[in-house]
Every structure is written in C-alpha cells, then in structure tokens.
C-alpha cells in the first residue's frame, strides 16, 4: 500500500491529520522550508514526502493533486529528478560528506524549476558532524528549497534541528484498513487480519501473510489452545511434539506467544460486545463458545500470564521448553508467575 503510486485521498485514509495539514499548506502556497515526518516504519512517511514532491513539481496537476503520469512525476517515482534528492544512510550512518555534497548541489541553480527539494531518510542516523552541517543548512534556507526529514526515532534528532522543522507525527495504521489492503492482494481474510495485527508495516504484513511458516504457526497456536481446554498431559505432549520444533528462534517464540495472546483478547472482545475487534474472525463461533466458559477475570489473568512469559523470554536465557511448560501449567491453574 505505502509503496504504490498514491494520491492524497488514498493517503488520507491512513493519516488524515497529516494529509489535511499538508494539503492546506499546498492550497495556500505556504509550504514550509523544512518538515520532519516522524512515526513507525510503514506508516506512509516516504509516500507523503514523494506526494509532496510531486505536488510541487508536477507539470499537469489537478489543483494540488499530481497527475502521476507526467515526466516529472515519473522521474520522482524513479528517483531521477535532478531537483529532488534523496539521502539515505551510507552503511550505518548518514555522514557529513553526504550533507556537504547535498549543500554543494543546492548552491547550483535549479535544473528545471525555481525550487529544489531533498528528503533525508532515517535522519536520526546522522553523525554529529552531519547533523551540525545540516543545521547550518536549515538555519539559512535558500528560497524555493524544501527539506523533508524522515525518522522512526524522533527522540534521537537534535532539538535544534527539530525546532527548525514543522513536525508531523504519523500514526500507526488501523489494522482493519491494513487488512483490507491485504485482502485486495488476494490474501485470505483470516490471514490478512492476523498479519495486520502482528505488524503495522504493509510490506511486512504482505510477506508474512504469504509465508507458509506463519500459516502453520497460526494453526499450531489454535490447536494448543484446544489442548489447554482438555488436560495438562495432552497440552504438554503437543507442546513438545508441535510447538517446540516450529517455534525455534526467540523472535518466532515471541510471535507465537502474541498469537496465543490474541485468542484471549478475542474472547474478551466478544464478552465486551466488540466483535469488530476480533482477530481470528474465521473462528468466531468457537471463540463465542470459549468465551462462555471463562470469566473476564480468568481471561485477563491468562493474558497477564502470557505477557509475563514474553517478559521472561526477552530478559533471561532460560530454557524455552521449560518456559513453555511453566506457561501451560500456569494457564491451566490460572495463576501468574511469582
């Protein structure tokens, strides 16, 4: 979704506040000399920066909307417009030399228009000398120059740089909208809704929902819950026979615990009369039956137990099979770790 050619109306579905403010600036001809777009990866920061560039450089705009077809729009999309520059980290950081080359480029007359625009991706990864060099650039902006800084780590940007930018915060994508985008890509709804809750990034969600490992992980987690409702021995046997071989890396185990947590969250949403928030939508009938057999207190307590297991996984080097065995026993007994 966030990498395809977009118009402002499409991006507005995901970032209504940001789009409203940017489009008003364009309509009034009051584009700032420097912007800072901050927010999680996959929330549309790059898409918004390219849309802003195309709105400024488009040869055949409809109002403020770029045509997405003219030579300028196509060159911006392909990264080949001579007056639109994108800076990305060189290795682990953005170096002073990169900013200096950018400054040299911007001292030249614009190639085709009376304006220039530059985008700095992962602006938080600038070295101290690069940040100081950029600061001088921002303090004395050239007429017609627009800077757009993108970051997922807002707190790592120098306050002196932040103070010279108009800051826009990009909110996490609504899972329902992300799921709908995945469904449009022929992803089955039950996989789309789950992937949209696991990650806020469209491309990651798309890749995850097409991954056979993820599909099997979902199946195993649902089976584990079924075993938990029966008896300890069956659940423990299933744990070692199915869970442990499938969830091997720490990141996979953490994801597996999240998938288990979603079952309990779904039951809580059903008890609270919020079916629209259910993640395992193809299991709605089962979830309703499971929810009838538990009190809200039991569900919340089980969620706490799973969250405590996640915390233990991420802070200790304890045996994963032992961690999972303890989780099974505590879920059966309904007691949190001490």
UniProtKB/TrEMBL annotation:
Gene Ontology biological process: DNA-templated DNA replication
One Pfam family, short name: DNApol3-delta_C
Q: Which residues form the DNA polymerase III delta subunit C-terminal domain?
A: 250-332
**What SUPFAM superfamilies does this protein map onto?**
P-loop containing nucleoside triphosphate hydrolases (SSF52540)
Q: Which UniProt keywords apply?
A: DNA replication, DNA-directed DNA polymerase, Nucleotidyltransferase, Transferase
The UniProt record lists the keyword Protein biosynthesis: no
Q: Which GO terms describe its molecular function?
A: 3'-5' exonuclease activity; DNA-directed DNA polymerase activity
Q: Which domain of life is it from?
A: Bacteria
| Listed EC numbers | 2.7.7.7
Q: Which reaction does it catalyse?
A: DNA(n) + a 2'-deoxyribonucleoside 5'-triphosphate = DNA(n+1) + diphosphate
Cross-referenced NCBIfam families, in alphabetical order? holB (TIGR00678), PRK08058.1 (NF005972)
Name recorded for this polypeptide: DNA polymerase III subunit delta'
- Source species, please? Parageobacillus caldoxylosilyticus NBRC 107762
């Amino acid at each position: 979704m966030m990498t395809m050619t977009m118009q402002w109306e499409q991006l507005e579905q995901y970032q209504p506040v940001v789009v409203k403010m940017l489009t008003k600036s364009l309509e009034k001809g009051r584009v700032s000399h420097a912007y800072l777009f901050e927010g999680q990866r996959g929330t549309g920061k790059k898409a918004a920066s390219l849309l802003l560039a195309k709105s400024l450089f488009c040869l055949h705009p409809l109002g403020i909307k770029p045509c997405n077809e003219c030579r300028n729009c196509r060159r911006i999309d392909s990264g080949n417009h001579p007056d639109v520059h994108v800076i990305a980290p060189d290795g682990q950081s953005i170096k002073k030399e990169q900013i200096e080359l950018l400054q040299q480029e911007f001292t030249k007359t614009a190639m085709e228009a009376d304006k220039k625009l530059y985008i700095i991706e992962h602006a938080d990864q600038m070295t101290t000398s690069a940040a100081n060099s950029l600061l001088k650039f921002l303090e004395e902006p050239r007429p017609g120059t627009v800077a757009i800084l993108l970051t997922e780590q807002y707190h790592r940007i120098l306050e002196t740089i932040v103070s010279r930018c108009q800051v826009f915060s990009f909110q996490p994508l609504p899972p329902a909208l992300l799921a709908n985008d995945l469904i449009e890509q022929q992803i089955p709804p039950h996989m789309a809704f789950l992937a949209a809750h696991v990650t806020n990034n469209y491309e990651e969600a798309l890749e995850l929902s097409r991954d056979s490992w993820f599909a099997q992980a979902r199946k195993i987690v649902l089976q584990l819950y079924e075993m938990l409702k029966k008896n300890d021995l069956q659940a423990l046997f299933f744990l070692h026979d199915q869970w442990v071989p499938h969830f091997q890396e720490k990141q996979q185990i953490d994801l597996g615990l999240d998938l288990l947590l979603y079952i309990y969250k779904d039951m809580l949403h059903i008890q609270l009369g919020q079916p629209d928030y259910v993640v395992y939508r193809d299991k709605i009938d089962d979830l309703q039956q499971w929810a009838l057999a538990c009190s809200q207190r039991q569900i919340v307590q089980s969620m706490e137990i799973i969250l405590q297991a996640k915390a233990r996984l991420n802070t200790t080097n304890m045996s994963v099979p032992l961690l999972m065995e303890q989780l099974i026993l505590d879920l059966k007994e309904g007691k949190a770790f001490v």
